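User: For my dataset I need records formatted as: sequence, then structure tokens, nothing else. Please produce one.
Assistant:
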Amino acid sequence: LAIDTPGSGESLDRAPGSPDQIDVADALLVFAESEPLLKRDDVFLVGVSLRGAMAVQLAAARPEIAGVVAVTAPFSPASYVPHLNSMVRPEVALSAGVSVAELPRMADEMSIESVAPRLRSPILVVGAGKDLVVPPEESLRLYRSAGGPKQLLYLERANHVGFSHMDVWTRAAASWIARATSASA
């Protein structure tokens, strides 16, 4: 099951993004419960970049979420958001549901520094050593801070969102989810 959260993908112009979208987790859990082929306790979240941070927020708020894969997620972006490349800044602002001028103020709200230690769901953190959007150490900070079972996949030569290594991290994420699912069965 793949979704576009408010502020992303096909819903980009229908609903603004925001750092606090816990109702998305509620809707996913209700949907899983209503579908005969799904189970509520088999909901895993995979998020890239800002949506990776959002996945951590949702799972911390709803511990029944089975697990999280966070790919190059910002951890505490206030220190680097003002210095984002001018070509990237409008995209980040749009995804966050704010104007470019509001982005530095919103950076504190995007932080998962206080949220990650409350996470109890298993997490696979995917970091990228050549990330020019989210500093590579953000993935390491998320990994160290996460409160539940955790695993780190750090791709030294990968770029933001691991586009250059998509086959590597998606295969690893699928295997990790399969192991986590079979372990809980």
